[in-house]
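Predict fold of Leucine--tRNA ligase; 869 aa.
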Amino acid sequence: TERYNPRASEPRWQAAWADAKLFETKTDAPGEKYYVLEMFPYPSGRIHMGHVRNYTMGDVVARYRRARGMNVLHPMGWDAFGMPAENAAMQNKVHPRDWTYQNIATMRGQLKSMGLSLDWSREFATCDVDYYHRQQMLFLDLLDKGLAYRRKSKVNWDPVDQTVLANEQVIDGRGWRSGALVESRELTQWFFKITAYADDLLAGLDALPQWPEKVRLMQRNWIGRSEGLLLRWALTEETAPEGVKDLTVFTTRPDTLFGASFLAVAADHPLAEAAARDKPELTAFIEECRRTGTATADIETAEKRGMETGIFAVHPLDPTWRLPVYVANFVLMEYGTGAIFGCPAHDQRDLDFARAYGLPVTPVVLPEGAEAESFSIGTEAYVGDGTMINSREFDGRSPSETFDAVADRLESTDLFGAPQAKRQVNYRLRDWGISRQRYWGCPIPVLHCETCGVVPEARENLPVKLPDDVAFDKPGNPLDRHPTWRNAKCPKCGGPALRETDTMDTFVDSSWYFIRFTAPHAETPTKPDVANAWMPVEQYIGGIEHAILHLLYSRFFTRAMRDCGHLAASEPFQGLFTQGMVVHETYRDGREWVAPADVAITEVEGERRAKRLSTGSDIAIGSIEKMSKSKKNVVDPDDIIASYGADTARWFMLSDSPPDRDVIWTEAGVEGAHRFVQRLWRLVSEAAPVIANAHGNGVDDEVATSIRRVAHRTAQGVADDIERLAFNKAVARLYEMVNALSASLNGLNADAPASIKAAGREALSMLVRLVAPMMPHLAEECWQALGEEGLAAAASWPSVDPALLSDDTLTLPVQINGKKRGDVVVAKDASKAEVETATLELDFVKTALAGQPPKRLVVVPGRIVNVVV
Ligand code: ANZ
Ligand code: ZN
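Predicted 3D structure, encoded as tokens:
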């Protein structure tokens, strides 16, 4: 038979699916709903292998669930706002809109060539006016609910690019693009009150068993709930700045109070300012802390520095004890109260600080098994549990008991007319700053009126559209410089007003697109009954890099939309799967990276060598890395699809590694996948004429039964594998099935027994449906060859005969003195005694025993039999 030609076949079947509108979903169609979604792409220009892997996995799930009779929603869209479009505008003088939509057109074509079972009728881009119009409606809803608000906040300001930078964009204190020294500026910015949901977002994680534990842990840490105490320390009258009596710290360890050796405040703390009033040295230090204070992430590792304020505080549990108050660079103004008491023995930062400034280090918690007399702290703080020491009346108690006892006591102690302490729950989570001083984003629909202040745009005036005529010849936000766009009428007083020129963080766009997919053309953000019919997403698939922000924002936004009446669900994603990366060998010609397309690999005496095709020179094979432009180790999906077809690419993506691990892309692997495509085609197309119209005679002989067993067992196994997303296991099973069927059907001719032909026909028809989720085009071609009706993509999953799943007999290996000598075949439910009897009947066992009883006979049920002679 002819070789399978994907280039001719694939577009034909893609057109057939589209013509049949096979993947267009109707909410009221029969079948249990199943919503499967892959993280939508940023339209950067072209799809990469990471997309291929991600979308193939989602497609297998979608096609499988559809075959199981479910009503599947599998949509696709574009996360289309963001900086790269503006960068392209600055560099190439192309409008961000044109750049974005051109990229979308290219990438849509690429995705279509993969044969994904997507409902393209629901496609949208977040930069479509239709979409951001509804996002503006949602913004106003959040504003009404008090979930959106404005406040001053510190930002990293790039004075050259005239823009706010995210923390990740500040590298060694400089802007990532301009290289300019970053300034800390106070700007009034828009925020979403994600902290209002902190507890709910935390508690909700427990109800997501289908999320990877590591992602849940990352979210827990990000929310960072801690139970502690707000504790006021009296300042000594002689040293306190005028008008200040006390200092409130936040501590999670009031049990360690007897180990305290200093207090410290953040550089921005009012007490620092007050103390510095006539101290130029302290003023200079505070200034320096402010300048270098941008990188909060470095707090743990940065050198701990501080300066005394000259102020002393009184210990809450011993009025005779005075402790110095420092300004310190490791205390953050944004957390707790911006002030701490330091207990060096039990906190690493405090210890580093104490060692640098010669402060006492008194352990107050003794680890289990340590001796109080000999226990001391070196360079590592002890943060574990134990027993209190050096803590007067609390000695011998546990830290947690002591926490409660100290908290109770100080809560009922009076200091200057109020309780000295108050229990408090703190969160690391901050409100979400959504303002971006950028053009290519969703405009924040508010106005600034001279008389009325900040006024939300009237709903009937939405959408606030981005102007088209913008220039990118200068740095900064083009909306600020637009001659007319800002001018508007105040919806409240009718007077002149100026539009807000901040646009929304693109994470807002991606925080609800999955809800919009349920009713992508609705006038309102959602149709609540339709959203309720589809949400939550059963299976969400994407990269681990979104484990924190995107998923947390989406969980928050879903709750906020729920509270504004747009849907009932709280959690957007019931199941989450994070796939591994696609990695590839790297090649180097001297200092230059070389692309795999320019490399030929040969094996010389078992050693792999690389040659550069364009120059003929020998080059070095480097480490295996994530595919990236900088290392040039990328393989373009288009090239693979053009030379091998989409099915080969899809099959290889699924086959080599567990889906949560990295997969190494190799030419050999792709070729192996392609050989399998051809092999499967040969098996089906050669057998098809012989087995077509075969009918069983109702009596299955041994061969027919074994063929049927293989088919039914594989069907069961593949279904289980796909449901667990163990795609590589499913692939392995299908390889085995093809091996087995090739062996039994090879050379089958017209005279073969009817039972075998019928079993073969059934098995091949099953096989085609089992591979269909992974290699949908090849499946159609085979389906047609077998003379089956309709499209394979519309066929239902083969039903499995449970009787064929279980063997009636078991084959156990028999060892004599530890060496395998043969097998014993017994009934599946045979007792130990029956296995023993059958073993002793075996010829080779009898010979070995030579008439003697065995020294020992050990039966490991279902596994093995050991005979010791
Ligand atoms: C005394 C103490 C003793 C502390 C001890 C820890 C260990 P989490 O769990 O993250 O909430 N802290 C409080 N506010 C801070 C700020 N603005 N900047 C830097 N550190 C701050 O951490 C709470 C602990 O972090 C608090 O408990 C405080 O130090 C410190 F053996 O108080 B602790
Ligand atoms: Zn007004």
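The longest strand covers residues 148-158.
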